[in-house]
């Protein structure tokens, strides 16, 4: 087992055995599927009609938003060209279904029904309809394990949508699915309700996917850092339909080191790459604590140098606003509305 | 006579499969903390019932199977289940004489030791995130369910004449 944790030798053995047990895992999941199938069958007509109307309304609204989006995307592309930054990488997605989850309540991993046969690779981000869920950490022929962003061993590089402040969102041991932001100074401009999106730093997750909403900020003057709790936007413990993200060229979005989009002059990508607690099979995994501290130092240094190449998620202007706000540094006082 | 040693192996295999299903069925979060270690219970039962057939090697194989199923570190369950099997092997003569309550207590100890070992290994490999004693709860639920498992498996074993 130490070999498994440190080296890669056993990955093949594991791959075949994992493929062999997939039918069993599917079977174990059968009762919950059956119940949902039965509830679907016994719906009344009125219920269905209501749902239908609701969905139609939703579709209308979303199509309207989509119209605007097309225009905005084109405009964004033009602006990016003007700024001479590289084009936004387009992603493709593949639908997948949840077929199981880790029996250990403190290990937040789920099993999906797409594996190597479908082209899934280690490191691919997984989304649901409303936000980032996690990343693929283990692949067998027909299924793969996804480490959720709320796992205590997982950290996601994020950015506040409002002002571009960057941070690292780590999972917690809480059985409720929640995240915390590491090493946020008390004077940082973080407010309840702020939306966090992936920053794209580190190259593991593409930039701009919603990760969570800040649900409470507690500033204790006695502590160097504020406690920031984040509720994920993805319905981590409810979604059954997931999306696995492919980069446009069909390759997994793993190796995007030093891609110009990432604004990589400060050397964060490498550090970040480290920070993500990727599969236990490939990296020594005791990093979280110190790596996080180290990271924040690098990040802080990076943040201090104001101008940076634009990320697609946030243009340069909001970033500078963020800098200005940070310098004023008014403590926001204690605000919290935890669940 | 040679037949006796291989007879009914499928009964053991099926019981292990059932335990695997139970160990993997999704549960609501509050219940999940209390999920008994089904695989361990089944291994303990077969070791004390048929110590000449189910021993350390079988336990190790079942453990590897569990590891793959649950996506844990490969060898973690293999290691802990082998030690549990060793414990049961050295206790089986006494276990057979015990009252159900005493048996439950022994199971509590065995599963507790298994959980503790898991905890140690996870800490040693830097994957542990537990900071409290919550890893003990499965041992309690396993001990509570032991009499049921014992009676079921015993009637099953006798029904299929596995000796």
Task: Please name the defining characteristics of this protein.
heterodimer, A: 339 residues, alpha+beta, 6-stranded antiparallel barrel, 6-stranded antiparallel β-barrel, 33% helix, B: mainly alpha, Arp2/3 complex 21 kDa subunit ARPC3, 8 helices
Molecular structure report:
The complex is a heterodimer of chains A (339) and B (163). Chain A has helices spanning 2-6, 11-28, 30-41, 45-82, 268-275, 288-304, 316-328, and strands spanning 91-101, 109-112, 125-128, 131-139, 144-148, 155-160, 166-171, 179-185, 195-198, 210-218, 225-232, 241-247, 335-336. Chain A contains 7 helices and 13 strands. Chain A has one domain. In chain A, helix 5 runs antiparallel to helix 6 (288-304). With 339 residues, chain A is an alpha+beta fold. Residues 249-339 of chain A have low confidence and may be disordered. In chain A, strand 1 and strand 2 form a beta hairpin. Chain B is an all-alpha fold and 163 residues long. Chain B has a single domain, classed as Arp2/3 complex 21 kDa subunit ARPC3. Helices cover 75% and strands 0% of the residues of chain B. Chain B has 8 helices and no strands. Chain B has helices at 2-6, 9-24, 29-32, 38-49, 56-70, 76-97, 100-124, 137-159. The longest helix of chain B has 25 residues, at 100-124. The termini of chain B are close together. The chains are: A alpha+beta (339), B mainly alpha (163). At the A-B interface, helix 1 and helix 2 of A face helix 2, helix 3, helix 5 and helix 6 of B.
Extract low-pLDDT stretches of chain B: none
Summarize model confidence as the mean pLDDT of chain A. Answer: 72
Going by helix content, strand content and strand pairing, the class of chain B is mainly alpha
Order of helices and strands of chain A: HHHHEEEEEEEEEEEEHHHE
- The CATH architecture of chain B comes to Orthogonal Bundle
Rg of Cα set of chain B: 15 Å
Molecular shape of chain A:
globular
Q: Overall pLDDT of chain B, averaged?
A: 87
Q: What's the number of domains of chain A?
A: 1
The description of the largest β-sheet of chain B is:
none
The biggest beta sheet of chain A reads: 6 strands, antiparallel, barrel
Q: Multimeric state of these chains?
A: heterodimer
User: What's the N-to-C terminus distance of chain A?
Assistant: 39 Å
**Number of beta-strand segments of chain A:** 13
């Amino acid at each position: 087992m130490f070999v498994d944790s440190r080296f890669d030798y056993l990955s093949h053995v594991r791959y075949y055995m994992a493929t062999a047990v997939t039918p069993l895992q599917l079977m174990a999941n059968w009762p919950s599927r059956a119940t949902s199938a039965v509830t679907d069958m016994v719906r009344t007509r009125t219920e269905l009609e209501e749902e239908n109307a609701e969905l139609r309304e939703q579709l209308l609204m979303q199509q309207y938003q989509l119209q605007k989006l097309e225009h905005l995307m084109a405009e964004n592309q033009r602006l990016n060209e003007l700024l001479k930054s590289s084009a936004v990488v387009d992603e493709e997605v593949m639908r997948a279904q949840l077929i199981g989850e880790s029996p250990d309540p403190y290990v937040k991993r789920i099993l999906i029904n797409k594996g190597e046969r479908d082209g899934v690779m280690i490191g691919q981000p997984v989304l649901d309809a409303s936000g980032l869920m996690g990343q693929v950490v283990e692949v067998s022929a027909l299924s793969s394990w996804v480490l959720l962003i709320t796992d205590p061993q997982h950290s996601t590089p994020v950015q506040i949508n409002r002002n571009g402040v960057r941070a690292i969102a780590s999972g917690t041991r809480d059985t409720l699915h929640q995240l915390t932001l590491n090493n946020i100074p008390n004077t940082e401009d973080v407010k309840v309700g702020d939306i966090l999106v992936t920053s794209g730093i580190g190259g593991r997750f593409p930039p701009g996917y919603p990760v969570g909403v800040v649900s409470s900020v507690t500033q204790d003057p006695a502590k160097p850092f504020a406690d920031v709790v984040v509720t994920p936007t993805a319905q981590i413990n409810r979604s059954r339909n997931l999306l696995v993200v492919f980069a446009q060229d069909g390759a997994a979005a793993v190796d995007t080191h030093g891609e110009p989009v990432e604004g990589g002059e400060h050397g964060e990508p490498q550090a970040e790459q480290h920070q993500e607690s990727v599969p236990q099979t490939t990296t020594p995994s005791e990093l979280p604590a110190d790596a996080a501290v180290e990271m924040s130092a690098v990040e802080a240094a990076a943040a201090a140098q104001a101008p940076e190449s634009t990320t697609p998620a946030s243009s340069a202007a909001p970033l500078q606003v963020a800098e200005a706000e940070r310098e004023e540094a008014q403590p926001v006082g204690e605000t919290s509305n935890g669940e | 006579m040679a037949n006796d040693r291989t007879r009914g192996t499928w009964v053991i295999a099926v019981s292990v499969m059932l335990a695997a299903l139970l160990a993997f069925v999704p549960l609501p979060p509050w219940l999940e903390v209390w999920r008994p270690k089904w695989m361990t219970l089944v291994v303990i039962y077969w070791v004390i019932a048929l110590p000449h057939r189910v021993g350390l090697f079988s336990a190790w194989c079942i453990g590897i199977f569990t590891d793959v199923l649950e996506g844990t570190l490969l060898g973690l369950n293999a290691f802990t289940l082998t030690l549990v099997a060793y414990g049961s092997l050295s206790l089986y003569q006494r276990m057979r004489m015990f009252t159900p309550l005493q048996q439950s207590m022994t199971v509590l100890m065995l599963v507790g030791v298994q959980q503790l070992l898991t905890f140690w290994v996870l800490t040693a490999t830097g994957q542990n995130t537990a900071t409290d004693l919550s890893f003990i709860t499965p041992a309690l639920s396993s001990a509570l369910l032991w009499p049921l498992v014992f009676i079921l498996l015993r009637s099953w074993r006798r029904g299929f004449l596995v000796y």
